[in-house]
């Protein structure tokens, strides 16, 4: 297993949904491809178990934020390709705002402004 | 496009294709990076994880999964249950017992207390009462005719209308055998106020209340069917009721028999006289949106200004507005709630028992559960599976219980004293009963299944596989013992209730009533005012019958009384007022009774001072009275000796109507065995001036012969003097005595049955936990025997385990009983809810039952062969 020496980051429930939607913004992709892209875009820091990935994909499909159809890969394999839907884009935008606010808040806690320390 | 209704099978195939393609792409990527095909496949599989589990958790995301799972779980549960028939049958029977008793009681409570009365907007109907406190009791919901007439005529913002009604007993002649039929008299607007209309013909017209109006009658559906073969032509025909022709004007619909299973209704005409002091129930309809509190306030304000009631002294009367249903159910409500509480406890015991069975079963299946975990099933999945099993068992048990409850309801109604379960026509299985039965099944199924399911799945795969074979049968010991403690505690609570009611019943049976019922035979009649228009005529008749009764061979004493002790019906109480007592404001109500000579001898009531009435105390002689001991002691302390010769005001008489006390007799129990013996004042029938006071007469005789031998002669005597006279009741007084304790007996018997069921279940639970204990500790016992322990030591080990559940059970149970038996207070007679001796007996009973339950496990334990036990490892 090529995990390098880096520690693996466990994903919070909900965060994975957000990352999948973000990944699908670049275009339709199959499950394996989504896993690879998440891994590559996070420089191998995030690894998604198939046991988390597929439930998440099927959950998002059921919520109507993504849809799926069977297609052929470049190598001629039958693959199930997922695509983000308009409601999925809306959801992503909302999640994005929430995420930005949260990261700012956490950054604020981790690096407090100097003047408050005295 | 999303196709949520794609067939499950095709989705399943697609899921596997999808996961397969993922796997192949992973292998291909690894091979591109230079791994060999074998390495690439092995590494990809490791990275991928458990395919079954991935598929399982993914499937969980699909909608519409539940029904599919439920179907599969049910099939699986059914197969599992069929594999262990003993467990299944015991569990189903326990549920059937618990749910059956609960449903039985709920069916009755639903029919009596919960179903609305079959009238138009029954929630607007109230019972309005207003009566002097001196004659009021908590159960009296009546009003004088005069007050009713004034109220009905007054304007009201809260009340839309008032109707009055009362019982009416007549002899129907001219249609087959003459028969006594119980119906009702009602004001003309009765059916309109209730909002029911006759099925045929018409209701009463307002002027039919007038005594001058021709007599009319409305028939009930049952009487119409039974007596007139449902002939529609009977409307308009004339029938004879107690010798008076009445024209049938209408027939009511089948479900209408208000009040008290009335068979017919006549207008309240001949007696609706403001000057006559008759008290009757009054039903009123509230205007829409008016609450009972508002109505009561308005009623009190109105009564304060009405001519007939404005002169009443404030604080001497009692006014009330109650739901109409109270009239029918007031006497049975407490009993029904008592039974409901008892059956809930039985249900809880049954639940604890089945939960225990499930724990044993689950303990035996831990290996199977472990394998299912290993195959990738989630915990929620397994819990759901186990719950399906318990709910399935509960539902089967509940269905059996529902069937059992049909007989149960019949049994309870048959065992109930007459009239104590009212509205029997509305008792039956309806959607509410069905809903309750299945709701209870579902709840109990979940309650019994949840603890075993959670406990068994809490252990991880590793635990289960690592543990030895012995531990497979020994799990959840603490939980199982706790459940048995709960069962024993609940059984104690029920047993305490049963014990208290039993003791109270025995006390009531042995209470000193002041009279001796054995050897007394009573014959009750009623005199029609038409035949006996004056009190003098009634008195002459009574004395003539009494004379002839005395002549019957074997009759020692014969006399007459208007209101015999412990017989339901008329009562009269009035303030006792001695001539020398100037202060009358306080009031001292006593029972007022009318008798003839020899009454006290016939009833074996002790004459304390003075003399009995004599035949010479006639209309021309000095008016006399006899009072009872407590009254004499109250007004002529300390011993009442000064009472003889004193004058007191004549009950119901004018201010200057005096009677002279000639005797003092013992107090007797008059109204109910549960009441104290009360003070009374007796008047001779020969000096009676009150026209309605002697219309109901009970002749009493004392004889050494069997009641059945003298009864025909008594009837013959009555008919020889007046052939038209009907005998209402002719029975030994012992019957009266036993029917007066019928209600406590009924409560005691039913609670005893419930507590016996609970005790049986608790015993089974105790046996189960001990047997299991011994079975799972065979090895340990074998070891002890091998190390030199004797039989006594082994018995002690099991006995200690038994005490380990019995003692906490008793302690918790007695604490629970101490907190809950106060609810019984109303049903108890001369027994406190925390009666010490009863509690000791309950604890002893429980210990005895536990000892029986422990006997078989103990026997098995002492028979353990150390060689066999140790070799099993």
Q: Report the mean per-residue pLDDT of chain A as an integer.
A: 80
Distance between the termini of chain B: 61 Å
Percentage of β-strand residues of chain A: 5-15%
Head-to-tail CA distance between termini of chain A:
49 Å
Specify the structural class of chain B: alpha+beta
Annotation, overall tally of beta strands of chain A: 3
Q: What is the tally of beta strands of chain B?
A: 23
User: Overall 3D geometry of chain B?
Assistant: elongated
Strand order of the largest sheet of chain A: 1-3-2
Q: Can you describe this structure?
A:
- The complex is a heterodimer of chains A (118) and B (873).
- Chain A is of the alpha+beta class.
- Chain A is 51% helix and 14% strand.
- Chain A has helices at 15-24, 31-41, 50-63, 86-110, and strands at 29-30, 66-72, 78-84.
- In chain A, strands 1-3-2 form a three-stranded antiparallel β-sheet.
- In chain A, a hairpin with a 5-residue loop joins strand 2 and strand 3 (78-84).
- The N and C termini of chain A lie far apart (49 Å).
- Mean pLDDT of chain A is 80; it is low at 1-8.
- Chain B has 27 helices and 23 strands.
- The model of chain B is unreliable at 468-474 (pLDDT under 50).
- In chain B, a hairpin with an 8-residue loop joins strand 19 (647-649) and strand 20 (658-665).
- Chain B has 873 residues and is of the alpha+beta class.
- In chain B, helix 5 runs antiparallel to helix 11, helix 17 (477-509) packs across helix 26 and helix 18 (535-550) packs across helix 21 (707-721).
- Chain B is elongated, with a radius of gyration of 37 Å.
- In chain B, the strands form four sheets. In chain B, strands 15, 16, 17, 18, 19, 20 and 21 form a seven-stranded mixed β-sheet that branches. Chain B has a six-stranded mixed beta barrel with strand order 3-4-9-6-8-7. In chain B, strands 14-22-13-23 form a four-stranded antiparallel β-sheet.
- The chains are: A alpha+beta (118), B alpha+beta (873).
- The A-B interface holds A 1, 30-33, 35-36, 49-51, 54-55, 58-59, 61-62, 64, 67, 70, 73, 75, 77-80 and B 1-2, 4, 14-15, 17-19, 21-22, 24-26, 28-29, 43, 46-50, 53-54, 57-58, 60-63.
